[in-house]
Amino acid sequence: MESNPSSVAPPWKYDVFLSFRGADVRHNFLGHLYDALDQNDIETFIDSKLGAGGEISRDLLEKIEQSNVSIVIFSRNYADSPWCLEELEKILECRQTLQQMVIPVFYHVEPTHVRELSNSYGDALAELRKKISPDKVETWKRVLIEVADLEGWHFDDSK
């Protein structure tokens, strides 16, 4: 019996891809999340797994394509990073083309700030607009809003 190629699931190399702004979460929340996933045998890609000497942009984009789920950790400075926004754009593309699951986590940031592009998100995009084409910034605004509208988790242990 032949299988229909269009019904074959993509060959995921990773269960989860983690998208995050390193300075905000690397040494606290991210470590705990990664350890919990690892302890449950969930194959998780984190940028420290990139080999030295590789072209980071292409390697990261390939890792996103090879992942079944992307967890996007929106933190205060996430939108300051063009790299994070490029990742987010690719993640949304994979959600649409590969049916990748995307889970937003709002870490010490209000979900409405991301959805409405206000506070640190609005400030970051205004700064990026000075350095990067307005069309690119508009694309990033759209993907931020779209991903922030997905069902996710709000984590704020400061309250």
TrEMBL record:
Query: Which GO BP annotation is one of this protein's?
Result: signal transduction
Entry keyword Magnesium: no
Q: This protein is called what?
A: ADP-ribosyl cyclase/cyclic ADP-ribose hydrolase
The EC code for this enzyme is 3.2.2.6
One Gene Ontology MF term? NAD+ nucleosidase activity, cyclic ADP-ribose generating
Read off the InterPro entries from this record: TIR_dom, Toll_tir_struct_dom_sf
Cite the entry's keywords alphabetically.
Hydrolase, NAD
Where the record annotates domain TIR, the positions are: 12-148
Q: Which PANTHER family match?
A: TIR DOMAIN-CONTAINING PROTEIN, TMV RESISTANCE PROTEIN N-LIKE
Reaction it catalyzes: NAD(+) + H2O = ADP-D-ribose + nicotinamide + H(+)
Organism the protein comes from: Salix koriyanagi
